[in-house]
Design brief:
Radius of gyration: 27 Å
Order of helices and strands: HHHHEHEHEHEEHEEHEEEHEEEHEEEHEE
């Protein structure tokens, strides 16, 4: 959420930000409603001050006629205040709905574009594997080695359901263990965070109201989150933090749930797009400084790149265009890993920074060196989303005999095993 004073003073900048993000938002309407809000607040406060003055006169006057006049004036003031407070409550609701819909300003380096087709490649790493055979999909490879069961997954959990089995489970845990040890070396604090969260938590991180259709809701009107970022960010909500703790680096683990609304017909088979999965999420809180956000954004991206490189997976990094950015993101990189069976890159990581968009909504503040209260800046990036990342591990390391070579860095966590399905 942006500061209303900033919006009023920079309405053309906000308009252009919405244009670049291809978000339909009426800045003039917000300013109009905010003007009404301000006028009503001033009027109510003025009338309450007058009410206090008249109340004092009633208690001090000895003239009965004056006392009666003051009492009548008090009744009129009370009615006027009540009417204006009711009107203010209505205006406040409209104002709040408009405020949470204001898109954050994209960085000047964000490319123009309406869809993900206009995202721009920044760099590539690794050589696309050239197989002497037709590469199989992760589906065929995993079924051949009894690593997954989609039929029973569908029977038990419905569409996009799955069971991971045997070496898939071991590979899964090996990846998590390697990741955890790697990130601990980078001073990340590990956390296991809730997936079941309140609406206010999702509102604070900017996932609703815009992304509500993709969320599962409980009968108690709570939600199942699609990323550990949500609970992790809310951990410090409504708190004033000590500046000495910055940068606060957290590595959050959680089960995640997404309805995949709007993805009808996409990735209906396999592990690319599922309703229930797991994520390790990097989250950073830092001082309210743009340059620091830029530096940590690059650092978060590099952390994930090092992981993918260690796994021996070719990938490229893209900078996301304006129209593909979320409501609160200032800038975002996606890491897309190579999927041989599809002969293309698929997104596995997203690194974003938000300035104070999320922290303002969640009321996460700190005192600077001069004692001033400021809203912190926030960033996040996927460390690993599984089982999606297993797709690229399995397909890129498949062998001609149908076996799967286990990345060297994961072997210590699998008892030194080098291959899955080696005869």
């Amino acid at each position: 959420m942006l500061d209303i004073k900033f919006i009023r003073d920079n309405k053309d900048l906000v308009k252009d930000g919405a244009r670049k993000k291809h978000i339909d938002f009426n800045v003039e309407k917000l300013i109009e409603v905010d003007t009404q809000r301000r006028e009503l607040i001033t009027s109510v406060e003025t009338k309450k001050a007058e009410q206090n003055r008249v109340s004092q006169l009633i208690t001090t006057t000895t003239d009965q006629t004056e006392r009666t006049q003051f009492i009548e004036a008090m009744k009129i003031l009370k009615d006027e205040i009540k009417a204006q407070e009711e009107k203010l409550a209505e205006i406040m609701k409209e104002w709040q709905m408009l405020m949470v819909a204001v898109p954050n300003l994209p960085d000047i380096s964000v490319p123009e574009g309406a869809t993900d087709e206009e995202n721009v490649e920044v760099r590539t790493w690794g050589e696309i594997p050239k197989f002497s055979f037709t590469p199989k999909s992760h589906i065929d490879l995993m079924l051949a080695h009894d690593m997954v069961d989609f039929d029973r997954g569908t029977k038990v959990a419905g569409f996009r359901g799955y069971f991971l089995k045997n070496d898939a489970v071991r590979l899964h845990f090996a990846l998590w263990q390697y990741l955890l040890e790697s990130f601990l070396k980078n001073n990340f604090e590990p956390m296991m965070v809730p997936s079941l969260v309140k609406r206010e938590t999702l509102m604070g991180t900017g996932y609703i109201p815009q992304g509500e259709d993709d969320l599962y809701k409980t009968q108690d009107t709570d939600y199942l989150s699609g990323t550990g970022e949500v609970a992790t960010m809310a951990y410090y909500s409504d708190e004033i933090l000590d500046k000495s703790m910055f940068p606060k680096k957290m590595l959050a683990f959680s089960p995640c749930f997404r309805r995949e609304a709007g993805s009808h017909g996409k990735d209906t088979r396999g592990l690319i797009r599922v309703h229930e999965f797991f994520k390790w999420e990097q989250v950073i809180l830092c001082e309210a400084d743009h340059q620091q956000s830029v530096v940590f954004h690059e650092e978060l991206t590099a952390n994930s790149e090092k992981l993918v490189q260690a796994l021996g997976i070719p990938y490229h990094v893209i900078v996301v265009c304006g129209g593909d950015l979320g409501l609160g993101q200032v800038k975002k990189y996606d890491i897309e890993c190579w999927v041989p069976a599809e002969n293309k890159y698929r997104e596995t990581h997203s690194a974003s920074y938000f300035h104070d968009f999320q922290t303002r909504r969640l009321n996460i503040r700190y005192r600077d060196d001069e004692g001033n209260i400021k809203f912190a800046h926030s960033l996040n990036n996927t460390a690993a989303a599984t089982p999606r990342l297993l797709v690229s591990i399995i397909e890129n390391h498949q062998q001609e005999d149908g076996s799967i070579k286990i990345p060297e860095v994961l072997r210590p966590y699998m008892g030194g095993q080098e291959f899955i399905g080696k005869k």
